[in-house]
Amino acid sequence: MSFILLGILNSQVPPSGAGNSFDLLETTVLGSVASSVTFSNLNNYSDYKHLEVRVTAKSNDANNQALRVILNADNAGNYNWHRLEGDGSSVSSTNQTNDARMVAGLIARSTGSGEFSGHIISVLDFSNSSKFTTIRTLSGFFQTANKRIQLSSGAWRNTAAVTSLRLEAFADFQTGSRFSLYGIK
C-alpha cells in the first residue's frame, strides 16, 4: 500500500479522545448544472479551527476543468498556489502568484457514466485574522484513458477571517455533483 493511500486513510480517523471533532455542517447536491457553489456565513462556525470541503463533481464539458476556490468574494489577484499532478505515466507541476483565485484540482470531464472526481479541500485556520489563510487539496479521478491525481496548496494573501467560500468550474458542474462542508475542532 502506498504512503499516499495510507495518509488518505489515516486522515479520516479522528484523533484519539477527540469525540465529535469532525462535524458535517452543510451539504449541497446539484439538481441542475451550476457554474459555482458558495458556502456563506462561515463566521457562524467560529467554534471550529479548520474547515474541510469534500467534493464529488463532474464537469459539464468534454475536457477536464480546473476546480477554483475564491474566499470572501476576493478575485483581486491575492492568491499564490502550486500543484503537483500525475497521470500514471508522467508528472507535472505548476505554480501561480497573484492569481484571482486558487486552483484546487481538476474536475473530471463529462464523458464516462458515473465517473466523478473526488476532492478534499482543507481551509486551515479560516477564522484567524492575524495571518494569511492556507488551503491544501488532494484530488483525483479515474476515467478510461483519462486519469489524474493532484496535490495542491496555496495561500490567500489576506488576513481577514474567511466568511465565504465559492467553488467554481470553468464549465458548469454537472447535475449530481456533491459539495459537503465539515468543521474540524
Give the biggest sheet: 8 strands, antiparallel
Q: How far apart lie the N and C ends? A: 29 Å
Helix content: under 10%
Shape: globular
In order across it, which strands form the biggest sheet? 1-12-3-8-9-10-5-6
Tally of structural domains: 1
β-strand amount: over 45%
Number of strands: 12
Query: What's the alpha carbon Rg, rounded to whole Å?
Result: 16 Å
Stretches with pLDDT under 50, minimum 5 residues: none
Task: Produce the secondary structure layout.
Layout: H1 3-10, E1 22-29, E2 34-39, E3 50-57, E4 65-71, E5 79-86, E6 91-99, E7 102-107, E8 117-124, E9 133-143, E10 146-156, E11 165-173, E12 178-184
Antiparallel strand pairs: 1-12, 2-11, 3-8, 3-12, 4-7, 4-11, 5-6, 5-10, 8-9, 9-10
Structure characterization notes:
With 185 residues, the protein is mostly beta strands. The protein has one domain. The protein is 4% helix and 53% strand. The strands form 2 sheets. It has an 8-stranded antiparallel β-sheet, with no helix packed on it. Strands 2-11-4-7 form a 4-stranded antiparallel β-sheet, with no helix packed on it. A hairpin with a 2-residue loop joins strand 9 and strand 10. The longest helix has 8 residues. It starts with a helix and ends with a strand. The model has no long low-confidence stretch (mean pLDDT 86).
